[in-house]
Amino acid sequence: MSPAPLWTSGAMAAAMRAAVQGAPQESVTGISIDSRTIASGEAYFAIKGDVHDGHDFVAAALKAGAALAVVEAAQRDKFAADAPLLVVDDVLAGLVDLAHAARARLGARVIAVTGSVGKTSTKEALRRVFGGQGETHASVASFNNHWGVPLSLARCPATAKFAIFEIGMNHAGEIEPLVRMVRPHVAIVTTVEPVHLEFFAGIEAIADAKAEIFAGIEPGGTAVLNRDNSQFARLASRAEALGVSRIVSFGSDTKSDARLIDLALHATCSAVRADILGQDVTYKLGVPGRHMVMNSLAVLAAAVLAGADLALSALSLSELEPAAGRGVRRLLEVPGGEALLIDESYNANPASMAAALNVLGQAPVGPRGRRIAMLGDMLELGPTSPALHRGLIEAIKADHIDLVYCCGPLMRHVWDALPTGRRGGYAEDAAALETQAVRAVRAGDAIMVKGSLGSRMKTIVTALEKRFPGRTALDEAAV
Fold it and tell me: Is residue 80 packed enough to be buried (19+ CB in 10 Å), middle (13-18) or exposed (0-12)?
């Protein structure tokens, strides 16, 4: 028996108030906005992006086996009269309409995650926890913006038992329309930190923007908040003002509802004991770092609130693995042995940079090995950026980082403040740092690469992996 379709073309047309042209397939197996990866039977939405107009790729999507394409009326005449189309005034607005229809038919417990740091890793931990206890849908990658959230929601099967959505922002007013689409039963705010300061007056303004998530919580729903964070009281007050009926806190604070009791940090994992809503639980977390431990408290609290089994949820966290660019480890084959590469290249802000340096400080090294940080600019920090970059020096010293390589004009502030003995090298951009990075590595080293996405630190990771083929590091005996 074949699985039920994600949508029927008729239901899609009704939800989007679309005109049907040609003969679309009745059964639609998925939703895509990328003609390069579309699978047979999926619906292709011709979204207009910052660089490309999806209408230019409709023919390719249909040739690849798309069940239909959703296009705007103004461009209908570009396509054959018999092309299988759903025609709308605006394609993105049509996707939003479909997302609302997806939420209306959904009987799942819905969890939404936002925060300055840790959204994606927390979402992935929730996926792992719920995935073993019923059909679970979660947004892929970091699909957390004005098109990513409706796309993720439109892809959610009606049969899902649990659904998890990541919601991001870098300006005020972005979260509220997205959360009103998602309508979560549980909303997690991982933390509020000084990020995107280019667009905000201060951390309190960031907290207010994150607090928009409370506007969409379902009646009787719960906000899960970090009690250790400086903005906890502000967030809790806003949640109450918006009618959230229950606030659950997590952290090391003794008043926390999901409270850390004890932990042991290791190079590739952590052992944790916690009180989760009155239940004592001990578990292994399969990724390193105190910041990951703190977010795991929120994950387990959300699991209990959504009706999942706590013991099974805690057990599943031992299998958690880092997402791409967020702590993935590889062993590099270098002359005389191996070196450990920690890829943190996906993004960076002061809080996540400090957390990554702390993890590097825990990493094992060989007899002659060094802990090396290769750092790119942290972007969107506004006028406080120089001071926030210089502030990394404290973490570099505290975590006993032996050498630091910097690239970018903002990281120059770090380079200038580094003690001479910790200076590895400096370059204007990541591409210019590649040669220095490759030459720096020797057997026994642990190297961590991190920077904002726009600083393109992935090029350093790629250069190291190309020069020193290796394998995934799976355990503490990696080096």
Answer: exposed
By 3-state DSSP, what share of the chain in percent is helix, strand and coil, each rounded to 5? Answer: 40, 25, 35
Count CA atoms within 13 Å of residue 468 on its CB side.
26
Q: What is the pLDDT along the chain (479 residues), one digit of tens a residue?
A: 466 899 999 999 999 999 999 999 999 999 999 999 999 999 999 999 888 999 999 999 999 999 999 999 999 999 999 999 999 999 999 999 999 999 999 999 999 999 999 999 999 999 999 999 999 999 887 789 999 999 999 999 999 999 999 999 989 999 999 999 999 999 999 999 988 778 888 999 999 999 999 999 999 999 999 999 999 999 999 999 999 999 999 999 999 999 999 999 998 899 999 999 999 999 999 999 999 999 999 999 999 999 999 999 999 999 999 888 889 999 999 999 999 999 999 989 999 999 999 999 999 999 999 999 999 999 989 899 999 999 999 999 999 999 999 999 999 999 999 999 999 999 999 999 999 999 999 999 999 999 999 999 999 999 999 999 888 775 443 33
CB burial of residue 400 (10 Å; 0-12, 13-18, 19+): exposed
Report yes or no: 175 and 184 within 8 Å, Cβ to Cβ.
no
Contacts of 433 (CB under 8 A, 6+ apart): 374, 405, 407, 425, 426, 427, 460
3-class state of residue 363 by DSSP:
coil
- DSSP 8-state secondary structure symbol assigned to residue 108: S
In sequence order, which ranges of 223-289 are alpha helices (DSSP H)? 232-241
- Tell the residue number behind the tokens 């926030």, with chain if given: 388
Q: Where are the domains of the chain?
A: 7-88, 106-319, 328-478
Residue partners of 42: CB distance under 8 A and separation at least 6 = 28, 29, 30, 31, 32, 65, 66, 67
DSSP-assigned letters across all residues of 380-440: S-GGGHHHHHHTHHHHHHHTT--EEEEESTTTHHHHHHS-GGGEEEEESSHHHHHHHHHHH
Do residues 452 and 314 make contact, with C-beta atoms less than 8 angstroms apart?
no
CB 268 within 8 A of CB 472: no
CATH code assigned to 328-478: 3.90.190.20
* CATH 3.40.1190.10 is the classification of domain 106-319: yes
What's the token pair of residue 260? 């850390």
The backbone region for 302, taken as left when phi is positive above 0, alpha when psi lies in -120 to 50, beta otherwise, is alpha
- The pTM of the whole model exceeds 0.85: yes
**7-88: CATH number:** 3.40.1390.10
